[in-house]
Fold:
Amino acid sequence: MQRTFQAMTRQITFLSLALALTASLSACPSSVPLMPGQGQQQSSFGNLNGQTAVPDEYLIKRKGSAYLQDPVQFAQQYGLLFVREIEPLGVELFKVTSPAALEQVRPMADYIEPNYLRYLSMPAQQAQAVRAASVFQRQNAEAGAALPVNNNYIGIIDTGVDTAHPDLQGKLIAGHNTLGQATVHDDNGHGTYLAGVAVGQNPGQDLNGVLPGGKVLPIKALDSNGIGTDFSVADGIVRAVEYGAQVIVLSATGANQSQALQAALDYANQRNIPVVTPTGNQMDAKSVFPGNSRSVLAVNSVDASGQALSAFSRPANNVTISAVGEGIRSTLPMNGFSLSRLGVSAGYGQLQTPGTAAVQVAAAVAAIKALNPGIRLPEIRQQLMAAADPMQASGQMGQINQMNAFGQPAASVSPQFGSGRLNMARIGAMAMQRASAPAYGYATAPQQAMYAPQQAAFQQQTAYSQPRRGY
Structure:
């Protein structure tokens, strides 16, 4: 009996130590020892601000039998360090310090490309005096009963969200951090702001989200500086799709086109999940990716008056629609966040950011999908275009008005405003329209000689038919 008791005591002690060790490792992921051939994922990029890519990091899509080899063994064999993989895309992140090693594996890859950086870009001086709330309320006042959104979650791939914010309680779905961290905590503020624009509601704070009955799926793919990578963003798109998002909004952009990020956009499109992005973000819009991809709904921003292009926006040849991108009051983290340097306070405030316009359109798409189950991507785009309010600025048409009568011809598309400006009051009156659908993606805007051609989608068929490894 005594031996049995001693054995049980040793087992309990061993189990307690094991549980304590497991908890310790879970709390400190960086303390987990790396195997030979493995590298640590970088989760903060402030020291790289202004650069185009993470030094010595490459996204590799192996092909054929090379893909079937365990990535750690592959890395050891060729002098690389394996970091992480986006398995549905067959895309792997490696650290490569030897150019010779990179050239050695090139024949075994469909493509090898730098792990490009993607940035949020906002004016350094944030105008706080002009408020767009009256415009926004006027658009929503006609909407009547709240639109049914069911489970059409809005995936926001951004800086995370303040899950403790009182006006976002009950409006958030458990999300994911693609930077290798444990939570979706928003240490920047931009993601929390977009979440409030999408689903927040607090009349006492003059907060009127587009879909107060909606829910947000937060994916933290950008650090406290508003910087992420093609790997973190592409992984975020795949995670959002797998977690049930019915529309995705992505605000971070960069100058370089990426086959890996394009593959993630195609992955969403093939599953009938629209991806909404800003067109400009303060840079020359003809060189901004993914805003110039055929696989996104590109949105331009208008100012608080709702009548003119925002100063930080740029014309582009594939603008689908426009929406107010400044002067809208929304949620901000309740505690410290990096955007407080712009003069905004904790809890609530206004930001000027292209993502504001994009997230409004994403919320509109969620409503369209809720009202029209089974609607396809070209039909969604057609409904947005047909709902446009004409704008006369520089001789062009303008912003979305989401309550125009459907069945009438869509407004002509301009490189400034697309086909119109968002007015959620019209969503409930929409009637289903059918469009001749391509295999995936959207119908594109007419090309204009003064703007760079829209980037073609990569046809990486093997990205979706690749067998999963058996290890």
Observations:
- The domain at 133-442 is CATH 3.40.50.200 (Rossmann fold).
- The chain has ten helices and 16 strands.
- Confidence is low (pLDDT under 50) at residues 1-31, 132-145, 394-411, 431-471.
